[in-house]
Design brief:
Shape: globular
Largest sheet: 5 strands, mixed
Strand content: 15-25%
Oligomer: single chain
Radius of gyration: 16 Å
Order of helices and strands: EEEHHHEHEHH
GO molecular function, one term: nucleic acid binding
Strand order of the largest sheet: 3-2-1-4-5
Structural class: alpha/beta
Number of strands: 5
Helix content: 25-40%
Distance between the termini: 6 Å
CATH topology: Nucleotidyltransferase, domain 5
CATH architecture: 2-Layer Sandwich
């Protein structure tokens, strides 16, 4: 079983009506050496300037990105090449990140290699601490920049810390 920490930046709150602008993924293993980055051309004419601004890209820049179909096929191929067993999706905000990745895979590739499940890093940490008011973000080493690979890497560092320093029982193949 391989865990993939995923982070998404988008130009609005939901897939279909709005677009995923970029995606970062990190295979969660010591060293965090295997990463994936993608920029995706918008699939919709709708966009919210404030949402897009988080990514640091202009609308004009995003219109020159590779097609979403191409990039989701590339992500599926990378997952297939790097996974050991069933790939597992985990993110800081899986309510947001999962909806985009799941929608894009089903609509543009035909299936989601992650299956039907995702995990939330923050909820996992709260459960470990038995405290719904704690936050894992202090466990990150990589600065949170809103570049999705940086953000996924920082979250993967937190998950590795939870395993090695806090005793989380998780198999990272």
């Amino acid at each position: 079983m391989s865990y993939y920490m995923i982070d998404v930046e988008a130009d609005g709150p939901i897939p279909g009506d709005y677009s995923m602008v970029c995606l970062g993924a990190v295979l969660v293993k010591p060293g965090l050496e295997q990463t994936f980055y993608s920029q995706l051309r918008p699939i919709s004419d709708k966009w919210i300037p404030q949402a897009l601004a988080v990514s640091g890209f202009s609308r004009e820049e995003t219109l020159a990105f590779p097609t979403a179909e191409t990039e989701m096929q590339r992500l599926a191929a990378w997952i297939g090449e790097t996974t050991n067993g069933q790939p597992m999706f985990i993110s800081d905000n899986n309510g947001f990140d999962w909806q985009f990745v799941n929608w894009y895979f089903h609509h543009l590739v035909g299936k989601n290699p992650f299956g039907h499940s995702s995990s939330n890093l923050g909820s996992l940490y709260k459960g470990m601490q038995k405290d719904c008011f704690v936050n894992f973000k202090r466990l990150r080493k990589t600065k949170h920049t809103h570049h999705p690979v940086d953000d996924a890497k920082g979250n993967a560092e937190a998950l590795l810390h939870m395993k090695t320093e806090m005793g989380l029982k998780i198999r990272l193949d």
